[in-house]
Amino acid sequence: MKNRKYDVFGMGNALVDMEFEVTEEFLQKYEVDKGMMTLVDEKRQFFLLEAMEKESTKMQCGGSAGNSMISISQFGGRSFYSCKVANDEFGRFFIKDLHASGVDSKLKMNNPPEGITGKCLVMITPDADRTMNTFLGITSTFSTEELDAEALKDSSFLYIEGYLVASSTGQKAMVKAHEIATQHGVKTALTFSDPNMVKYFNDGMHEVVGKGIDLIFCNEDEALTYTSTSRIEDAREKLKQVANTFVITQGKNGAMIFDGDTFIDIEPYHVNAVDSNGAGDMFAGAFLYGITHGHSYAQAGKIASLASSKVVAQFGPRLEWSQTKEILNHLFE
């Protein structure tokens, strides 16, 4: 697979992430479900924006898989992102920021469709938890039309964002991409993305997994929900039935990896957490970089664990380019 143009072809929602620091009282007052990703309409999102009465601490192109593709690029890998934005101010910002981050796509500044680009309000509380209220906008119509089959065929891995399952056209695109990847020897990775995606769109997620998938990323809640179990030991045994390999992230307790043969416990790097936004996205991107660049699953897990620990110790879902180089030097020099 070394002669493929891209290490990872990602597909997911294109969102402009806007971060805000809020209090627990704010979430309670405005009836925002803490720690969850909630889909809202534009009116509700605008209402929350006005209620916060302050500037965003940071604005970046994002979406879960988008963040992961950027992290792959920052580590030195080659990534492609399949997504959908509109011909508006935020759409143009997204395209410019994505390409400046070294990620390829078929988005062009002069031909986005009319509509509204999706935005995600990321609300960070003092305990470093992140709560997201997302207005999908035009990305809710993501479909097979946004797939670039030639770029996908020329990739080592396909990475599918689980959030797409909430849209009927997005879910069909997930299934189609999996089919193309299987036909052309491209390994497929899937992230469950959020407990609500597994809980409310379980049938759609099962259809995406199909007869099996190469790599699943999930946290403990998502693993338990998907497998309808109450113990993580039972969940991981059931995941073996649908995934060749998988990663279960465990927050401050590190991660559990199944490499197809044995279970590997990845130790966490203890830091003073200030913002958990993007930690899972960084873990997935860094891990995919690792396994597509000659590292074992255990080594890739260490890269991902260290990278995600650095993300939660700062605001925003990305690292600086110099930080990724320091991570690799620290672990492998």
Keywords:
333 residues, alpha/beta, UDP-N-acetylmuramoyl-L-alanine:D-glutamate ligase, eight-stranded mixed beta sheet, five-stranded mixed beta sheet, 13 helices, 40% helix, 22% strand
Shape category: globular
Largest sheet report: 8 strands, mixed
Q: Terminal Cα separation, in Å?
A: 25 Å
Share of residues in helices: 25-40%
Strand order of the largest sheet: 5-1-8-9-10-11-12-13
How many individual helices? Answer: 13
Number of domains: 1
SSE ordering: EEHEHEHEHEEHEHEHHEHHEEEHHH
What is the gyration radius calculated from CA atoms?
Answer: 18 Å
The total of beta strands comes to 13
Stretches where pLDDT is under 50 for at least 5 consecutive residues are: none
- CATH fold title: UDP-N-acetylmuramoyl-L-alanine:D-glutamate ligase
**The CATH C-level class name:** Alpha Beta
Q: Strand fraction band?
A: 15-25%
Mean pLDDT: 93
CATH architecture: 3-Layer(aba) Sandwich
What is the CATH homology-level superfamily? Answer: Ribokinase
